[in-house]
C-alpha cells in the first residue's frame, strides 16, 4: 500500500508546512509592492549611498576592478538581508544579477551555488521532510523525544541543543546534521502544540540549528571550518592538533557554556509553553508503540542508507548533497513515499535562491581576491605591545571580522596562514593564537556567516529577521560570557598566562 497521497489523514494530520518554505518573506514587514512604496524609497537610497561611499573609501586605499565591485555589491546585498527592506529572494536575485553584470567573474563563479552540494541538500531535505510527514515516521521519532523533552519548553530547548552537539561527535557534517534534525524538530513541535506561527517553534528550530553550527566548533572533525584550520595548520605551521587536547581546550566553554547561552536566549526571545502531552492529538505512547507500517520501514531504510553514505564519505568521496539527491529520488520514485505532483505544488523556490546566492557570494569573494587584498593589512597587526588579555581579545575580534567578510567556512583559510606573523613577539603561544580563531568562528552574529544555518532556515521556513535577532542576541551574550570564560579556562589549563605581560 502506498502512502503517496499528500492529503493528511485523520490519525496523522500534517500540521506543519512542507519542509521547504519561504525564508524571510513570511516574516517580513513589507511585501514586494510595499518595499517600493514612495514612502520607503529613502531606504533604498540610504543603502545605495552607504555602499557607494564605502566603495569610494576602498578605492582610495587601493582596491580596484572586481575586488572593489564585489566588495560594494556584497555590502549592499548584506545590508538588504540584515534590514529586511527587500524580500530575501529578491535580494538573492539582485546579488546574482549584479555579480554577473558588474564583474568579470563569469557565470561559473556567480551561479556556482546551483552546482553545489548544499543547494541540492535543500531540495533533498524538502523531499525527506515531506516523507517523514506523510509516512508518520517523523511523528514517531518526535513522540519518542516528547517522552523525554516534551514536558517543558526549556527542557525541549536544552534537549535538542544537546542532541545537536552529540550528533556532531559522530557525524562530521553540519549540513547533514541539519538535514536530519530539521524535520524531526518540526514534527516534535507539532506533537507538543508548537504549530506554525508560535514563537516556540521558531526558538526551538533556531536553537537547534545554531547549536549544530556553533557547538561543533569544539569537536575537531565536526565541521568544515575546523578541518580547514587543522589542515592549514599542519601544512603551513607544521602544527598537528590532537582530538583530545582540542576537546579539552574548547568543549567546556565553546560547547557547554555556549549551549547554555543558546537555550537561555531562545527562551527569552521566543517564550512559549508546550501543550500537555496526551491532550488534543493521539496519545504519545499509542503513536510510539504502534508497529511500524511498510512505508515507514521503507523510509527508515532509505535514511539509514543515506546516513551510512554520509559517514563513509572519506572512502567513496560522494558529496552529501548528491547522496541526499539520490535518496530524494528514491522517495519520489521507487519507494512511493511522496507524490511528485503534490511535492511540485507545495515546494517553494525562495529558499533555493537564498542558498544559491549565499554560496555564490562566498565564491565571488574568494575569486575576486578580496581576502587576499586584506592579508597584508592583517599581517601588520602587532600584538607584541599588548598584554595577554588584550591580545587574546584582539585575535577573537579579528576572527569575528573575517567571518563577516568571507563567512565562517572560509575564515580559517585566511586566518591560519597569518598565525606565525601574529604570534611573533605576542604574549600568546602559537597554539593559543591558532585556537583563538575558534572563539570568533563560533560566534555567528548574522545568518549568512554560517551557510549551514541558511540551510536550516530554508528547510524550516524561518524568517531572516527572527534568525538575525537570535544570532545577534546570542553573539552579544557570548561576547560578555563565553569569551572571558574561555580565557579563564585556558589560563586554568596552562594554554595562556593572563597575569604575565
Keywords:
mainly alpha, 501 residues, globular, 25 helices
Sheet/helix structural class: mainly alpha
Helix amount: 55-70%
Distance between the termini: 73 Å
Q: How many distinct helices?
A: 25
Oligomer: single chain
Radius of gyration: 23 Å
Q: Report the average pLDDT across residues.
A: 81
- Described by the principal axes of the CA atoms, the overall outline is globular
Taken as a percent bin, the fraction of beta residues is: under 5%
Give the low-pLDDT segments: 1-33, 278-285
The helix/strand order is HHHHHHHHHHHHHHHHHHHHHHHHH
Q: What is the tally of beta strands?
A: 0
- Main sheet attributes: strand count, strand direction, barrel closure: none
Count of structural domains: 3
Describe this protein's structure.
Residues 1-26 are annotated as: Disordered. One of its GO terms (cellular component) is plasma membrane. It is a multi-pass membrane protein. Keywords: Membrane, Transmembrane, Transmembrane helix. The protein is mostly helical. The protein has three domains: 25-107, no CATH class; 115-222 and 241-353, no CATH class; 370-492, no CATH class. It has 25 helices and no strands. The chain has helices spanning 32-35, 41-60, 65-83, 88-102, 107-110, 117-135, 137-149, 153-170, 174-191, 199-214, 224-237, 243-269, 284-289, 294-311, 313-316, 320-332, 340-346, 350-367, 370-379, 388-415, 419-423, 430-441, 451-460, 464-480, 482-492. Helix 10 packs antiparallel against helix 23. It is globular and about 70 Å long.
In a nutshell, what does this entry contain?
It is found in: Membrane. This protein is an all-alpha fold and 501 residues long.
Amino acid at each position: 500500500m502506498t502512502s503517496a497521497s499528500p492529503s493528511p489523514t485523520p490519525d496523522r494530520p500534517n500540521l506543519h508546512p512542507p519542509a521547504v518554505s519561504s525564508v524571510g518573506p513570511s516574516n517580513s514587514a513589507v511585501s514586494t509592492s510595499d518595499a517600493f512604496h514612495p514612502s520607503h524609497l529613502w531606504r533604498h537610497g540610504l543603502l545605495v549611498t552607504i555602499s557607494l561611499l564605502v566603495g569610494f573609501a576602498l578605492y582610495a586605499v587601493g582596491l580596484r576592478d572586481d575586488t572593489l565591485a564585489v566588495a560594494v555589491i556584497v555590502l549592499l546585498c548584506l545590508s538588504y538581508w540584515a534590514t529586511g527592506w527587500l524580500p530575501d529572494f529578491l535580494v538573492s536575485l539582485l546579488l546574482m544579477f549584479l555579480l554577473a553584470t558588474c564583474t568579470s567573474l563569469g557565470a561559473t563563479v556567480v551561479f556556482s551555488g546551483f552546482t553545489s552540494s548544499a543547494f541540492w541538500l535543500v531540495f533533498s531535505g524538502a523531499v525527506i521532510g515531506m516523507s517523514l510527514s506523510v509516512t508518520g515516521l517523523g511523528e514517531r521519532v518526535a513522540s519518542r523525544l516528547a517522552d523525554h523533552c516534551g514536558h517543558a519548553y526549556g527542557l525541549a530547548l536544552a534537549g535538542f541543543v544537546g542532541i545537536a552537539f552529540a550528533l556532531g561527535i559522530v557525524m562530521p557534517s553540519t549540513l547533514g546534521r541539519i538535514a536530519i534534525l530539521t524535520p524531526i524538530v518540526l514534527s516534535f513541535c507539532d506533537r507538543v502544540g508548537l504549530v506554525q506561527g508560535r514563537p516556540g517553534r521558531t526558538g526551538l528550530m533556531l536553537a537547534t540549528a545554531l547549536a549544530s553550527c556553533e557547538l561543533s566548533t569544539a569537536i575537531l572533525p565536526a565541521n568544515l571550518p575546523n578541518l580547514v584550520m587543522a589542515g592549514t595548520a599542519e601544512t603551513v605551521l607544521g602544527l598537528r592538533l590532537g582530538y583530545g587536547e582540542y576537546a579539552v581546550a574548547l568543549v567546556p566553554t565553546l560547547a557547554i557554556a555556549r549551549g547554555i547561552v543558546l537555550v537561555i536566549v531562545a527562551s527569552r526571545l521566543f517564550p512559549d509553553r508546550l501543550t500537555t502531552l496526551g491532550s488534543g492529538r493521539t496519545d504519545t505512547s499509542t503513536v510510539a508503540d504502534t508497529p511500524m507500517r511498510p512505508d515507514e520501514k521503507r523510509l527508515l531504510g532509505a535514511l539509514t542508507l543515506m546516513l551510512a553514505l554520509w559517514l563513509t564519505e572519506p572512502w567513496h568521496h560522494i558529496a552529501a548533497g548528491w547522496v541526499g539527491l539520490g535518496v530524494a529520488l528514491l522517495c519520489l520514485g521507487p519507494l512511493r513515499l511522496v507524490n511528485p505532483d503534490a511535492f511540485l505544488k507545495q515546494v517553494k523556490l525562495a529558499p533555493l535562491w537564498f542558498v544559491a546566492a549565499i554560496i555564490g557570494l562566498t565564491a565571488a569573494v574568494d575569486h575576486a581576491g578580496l581576502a587576499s587584498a586584506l592579508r597584508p593589512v592583517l599581517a601588520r597587526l602587532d600584538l607584541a605591545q599588548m598584554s595577554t588579555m588584550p591580545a587574546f581579545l584582539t585575535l577573537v575580534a579579528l576572527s569575528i571580522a573575517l567571518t563577516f567578510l568571507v563567512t565562517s567556512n572560509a575564515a580559517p583559510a585566511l586566518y591560519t596562514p597569518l598565525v606565525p606573523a601574529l604570534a611573533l613577539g605576542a604574549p600568546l603561544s602559537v597554539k593559543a593564537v591558532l585556537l583563538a580563531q575558534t572563539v570568533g568562528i563560533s560566534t555567528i552574529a548574522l545568518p549568512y556567516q554560517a551557510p549551514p544555518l541558511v540551510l536550516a532556515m530554508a528547510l524550516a521556513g524561518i524568517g531572516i529577521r527572527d534568525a538575525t535577532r537570535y544570532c545577534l542576541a546570542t553573539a552579544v551574550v557570548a561576547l560578555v560570557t563565553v569569551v572571558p570564560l574561555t580565557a579563564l579556562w585556558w589560563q586554568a589549563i596552562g594554554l595562556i598566562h593572563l597575569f604575565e605581560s
